[in-house]
Amino acid sequence: MWTIFIQIIFSYLATVTFAILTNVPKRSLNACGLTGTFGWMVFWVLSLLGAGNVMSTLAGAFMVAVASYFFSKYKKMPITIFNVPGIVPLVPGGLAYQAVRNFVLGEYNTAIAFSVQVAMVAGAIAGGLMLSEVFNHSIRRFREHKERF
Q1: How many domains would you assign to the chain?
Q2: Handedness of CA 65, 70, 72, 73 (dihedral sign)
Q3: Which residues of the chain have pLDDT under 50?
Q4: What is the C-alpha to C-alpha distance for residues 70 and 44, in angstroms, rounded to an integer?
């Protein structure tokens, strides 16, 4: 129970802190924090269920994009205000550090393995955001087509 609480609190704080650093409007800070928390919780739960790092990141990024779309409509603000801070908990900083560290230590095979993982997770983040945008665009087109007839 405490683990869930800690995951929620720290993902919220990481997202809000990054949002403050990037000067998002004050009225959107809570929504930014919730966006990052939703994405992280999807990632974390899927990781616990054994979905793998890349698939968990893809689903987490998709959730961030969906929440960002919702909050952008609710707050009447651009979607990037919520997308950019919301992705921060999913960024593979630890893996990138390990890759660079192993390059410096001369352990090239290990460094390349970490670098490939970083590239795959970064691709999953981009894919999750893109997949959500495709769904949102399809839904908008369906609604527009439905209203015409």
Answers
A1: 1
A2: positive
A3: none
A4: 22
